Amino acid sequence: MDPELWEAVGHDPVRLLGEVSPERLSLLAVDRRFLRRLQDAADDLNEYLTAPRWYQDLDDAPDAVAYFSPEYGITAALPQYSGGLGILAGDHLKTASDLGVPVIGVGLLYRHGYFSQSLSPDGWQLERYPTFDPNGLPLALLRDQDGAPVRVTIGLPQGRDLHAQVWLAQVGRVPQLLLDSDVEDNDQAARDVTDRLYGGGGDHRLLQEMLLGIGGVRAIRAYCRISGHPAPEVFHTNEGHAGFLGLERIRELVSESGLTFDEALEAVRAGTVFTTHTPVPAGIDRFPRELIHKYFGGVNEEPDVPVDRVLALGAEDYADGDRTVFNMAVMGMRLAQRVNGVSELHGEVSREMFGGLWGGFDTAEVPVGSITNGVHAGTWVAREVLDLAAREVPDVVESSRGWEGVRDVPENEMWRVRRTLRERLVRDARRRLRESWRQRGASGAELSWVEGALDPDVLTIGFARRVPSYKRLTLMMRDPERLRALLLHPERPVQIVIAGKAHPADEGGKRLIQDIVRFADQEDVRHRIVFLPDYDMDLGRSLTQGCDVWMNNPLRPLEACGTSGMKAALNGGLNLSIRDGWWDEWYDGQNGWAIPSADGLAAPDRRDAIEAGALYELIEDHVSVMFYDRDPAGLPRRWLEMVKHTIVTLGPKVLASRMVRDYVHDLYAPAARSGRAMAAGDHAGARALAAWKQKVIKAWPGVAVEHVETSGEESPHVGANLPVRVVVDLGGLDQKDVAVEVAYGRVDDTDALVDPAYLELTGGDPVENGLLRYVGEVPLVRSGAFGYSVRVVPRHPMLSGRAEMGLVALPPPPHGMTNGDLR
Questions:
Q1: What pTM did the predictor assign?
Q2: How far apart are CA 172 and CA 169, in angstroms?
Q3: Are 331 and 352 in contact (CB under 8 A)?
Q4: Three-state SS for 118?
Q5: Nearest to residue 696, comparing CAs of 739, 758, 741?
Q6: Across 76-80, 339-343, 553-557, which has the greatest mean pLDDT?
Q7: How far apart are CA 644 and CA 651, in angstroms?
């Protein structure tokens, strides 16, 4: 409609439509070519919104899924995100739309969003909170049939109420509900609840999370009533911020369906998925217990949701837990039957981190799985890359050649596109650099050097992310002279484009930014290394599309996933990263470079020195050498082979379509089945399971392994079986309530079982004094050190696994035996 205006309004379609001139509209109205394109776009959109898609061919899938997140990175024109959590949530909604998954997104509308970042003259981060008018955003108020705006209300102490209106954004096929407390019905304190993302603390943060969770469920009920959208069968909690949604659903079931709290808890857990996104305890919201009591107890207490039950859900009542705090992630996990991390390594870290909730079970059995994040190609992949793929590898995902067809793309075409994207990044970086220096007080006469900053033919490394200390923004500056030598190398120069925001309260993160800015300000290197302020989706897209190499050097294993490197890979960039998050899982030795990690070193300074040295060596002796190794046609053949291999091997893995399909098959569909089983027959399943659990919990102190014995050869051989007989006391429980198992396998130097297998014993024959005997034969399938242990665990068809209740009975020490080396 108006390309220049499109750039001027920052690619905001609502602003564009509001500011395009009447004269321009009159011209377009009689422009046949434009009208044909407009009609084609409208037809494509109608097809996208109405035609059946992947999900519509599935059997037994949920009618709808509610997806709760405190932030969403849908588009730069709707700035309601701070970093990776929000970008992931936005990609999840957009991909659900692409696949036809009936998701309803729920979040908050922050009038000031996250902050806009600029720099002071000496390089210190400055924050500004612009005000957004929802009427100027791609939003519409949710209204009832009579046209009145929908309101949700939450009771507060001292007889106050928190009211919120609901804005509706249409993310393709997916409705997104955003709650906004800036309404006249509220006092000023309540109006400010949704003032800014991750602002304030204490009461303010708690009120945001109450509004998101409790108010979000109420908003969904109103939306489904008004629109006719199917009610969600599954509720997905994206991190602990929305955990209170479980309390509201319990309240509904108790007050409307007559269930007890315990029965409602089982019904809610069955249909809830909880995703944790942090491997860092500091990333979890924890509130003083007194604050929870203030808002959920006293005169504000809901009779159907007693405050002591609320406090118990978030209690760190396990070894090494803090008894004085209420942990939102712990509550989220107790309210969800299915829990996952966001990469395989993060799943392992989460099992360690939250293992106390399932005490008595080995870490490997802690019921926290993983689904590795993905990225939305339509958002992050450059148009030039998509056009090249459409021309050279049509229907790359569905074609018979599949992703392997990328290997046949002509190298010169691939290199041409990569050069185009690098050049675009250089232009964008120069523009942003000039604006930043002007904000810092420089005059136009002082900025002539900016036109020579960066070079579209120089190896370009990108580094952009939030700036907590564990992401190590300044690791590249560990040896400033060595970095300078890399940047200014006469034959193989390197240029680095850096962006990132520190939390407004993180003085340490701001110092890191200042350190990097001061280095980049030096006249001899400022054309080779730049820091670009105000990292957002637009800048992130420019960087991941234009950089040749995406660098990531967190302290392993503190990066949960790290999806920016996925975006770079889809655009033909190579990764240079510590093996953390997704890179630990999918690095294969040919799709980039792994920075060696000095895990286990107690001295952080020494670890940084070792890893920085490895980083310099990789860039100098491997990355830059390969980039500048050109054939007679000027093409870096070996580099382009790596690019092709990267796209072929990572392409199908890093797409958010793979991620959302995994959620549907592995979590949403099973959760829906469990929820239906709980709800059937006036919630007979929930009532029965709650009663059974109470019976088991009451009897469990009396469950014991009384005697274990084996027979057979003194030195058993591989291929033989080891007979095991166990005598147990079930403490009054029925045999069908438990499983008696042998865990067996190889043992380490401490006689601990490593990756054990499990065999359920049979029998249950009575012996004296009400005891029961169970028997079985353990197969001896491998040589080496071998051991076994016996245990009793609860068993019920509606449990998600053996460890769900955290109950296990073991024999007195030693819990088994080590049989030496099998031969």
A1: 0.95
A2: 9
A3: no
A4: strand
A5: 739
A6: 339-343
A7: 10
